[in-house]
Fold:
Amino acid sequence: MLKRRLLAVTALAAAATVALVPALSQNNSQTVARYTMDAGTLSGMAAMTAGGGGGLGGIMNMMRGGDQVAHELVLRLGSSRSPTGNPAADHFMPQGAGLGASVPLVTPTPSPRGTPEPGTPGQQEMPRGRLLLFWGCGEHAPAGQPVIIDFSRLARGEVPAGLYASGLDLPDDWEVLVSNSTTYGDWPNARESRSLTSSSSLLGAHRVAGNYSPEISFTLAEDFMPALNPSGAAMPSGAVRLTWANLTKATGYYAWAVGAGANGNDRDMVWWASSRTQAFGGPMASWISPSAAAQYVRAGTLMAPGTTECVIPAEVKQAGGEALMTSLYAYGPQQDFSYPERPRNAPASWRPEWIARVRFRSMAMVIPGMDMGLGSGRGEQAESAPEQPPAKPRCRGGLRGMAERAAGLCE
Structure:
């Protein structure tokens, strides 16, 4: 039962991350190409999801093997040009990346939206249960928490005020998307998804070449950030002290946790964030530029650089149950490139032929306070014959899908 709940909370954490990342965009008709590299270091359970290592087997291997580290890389190319023939582009990597000479940036093929089959649970039933929102570091939640939201209202699209992280004016946190590009390509993709290793390095020369954008070339002097490897220790009050490594290049930290199934109540979902104000989701689960991180630190949404601990309130642990899946983010440096090179004191009218941005972060997922020594006895028996829940339909996207997943109506 413990492992089954652990997997359910892992799925809830993934659903919450995907559902609440807004689409930031920037359109610039005079700049032909925009390119982004987002480079991440993963530790704890997050490392087990890299390269297809997720699932019950991956989680159990992590439990027996201790700290693990993996690297992730997300590449996106957007251009205002149409291709000559079929769109094609490649990113040529330094040898240290361990990805071969290059990786292909594939243009996705549009697919029609699927229509749910009649009679699926998502159409027949509204999810039951509640979403309990907590925020802030400290042994006890302040008065007025949790804020309680009924899932059935959330599934109907009734999103309460304050659910998302507070919006700030972040003009430099633009994104490359299919929707703001004439031609778009990305990696990893369905055609090619080689995995980086824990020893992969991005240092050195990079070149992006294709038939719908000018050639982009730059040399990286920054590399993957170190791992956070957080740990949690129970306090006499019932709170959990979450601690992590001090990353010297971190520009801010953010933690959030989800839990479900405390005291046999599997209809409630608990969501906690480290922000000093009610701020959930939003860009916190993505990469954040140093200038944006500085604004979020001033607003109290992010913990300041140099922070190495945050206490998860006792009320969160009590309501969230034994499998309180916690994610910790350390946002890092950024390198920017352009052609021509950006002049000092560039005027507002300056428009380069191409711009490129490389952002770094370190992220970890843990279950604070859970005993990871499950390598013998009943733990081994459970791994050899895991429970197989009945098949359910796949969850749709958005807040409705998150609510239906929490209610156990889809997977």
